[in-house]
Design goal:
There is one protein chain. With 121 residues, the chain is α/β, with parallel strands linked by helices. It contains four helices and seven strands. Strand 5, helix 3 and strand 6 form a beta-alpha-beta unit. The termini are far apart.
Amino acid sequence: MPVQRISKEDLKQQLDGGISPVLVDARLKYPYEHSTVRLPGAIRFTGEGPIPSLPRDREVVVYDSDPSELASSHVAAVLIRQGYRAVALKGGISEWLSANLPTETKAAPKQAPPEPGALKG
């Protein structure tokens, strides 16, 4: 059974209307670590390891950074198999950002350590 999708417009309408789905950030390590934003209140889960404690009475909207939604579809399928109502965000965070929809700042992206001797005066 294929994972259902939700459009950015429908998700925005839900959020504006007081319906609060659980947002799950399924971006792979590099895109996640090198980004400064996420959807408001999003919980990080990539489908590996234990599933975070998510309320079962709310829909789960999973997003990633890939317009083809490969990672988000995978994570949504994992959650569905565990009894959650999960969908993937069409176009991922890229489409959300291109529409200037709300985000929140997350921890600063990781940066490579300075080259040895680069800090010497």
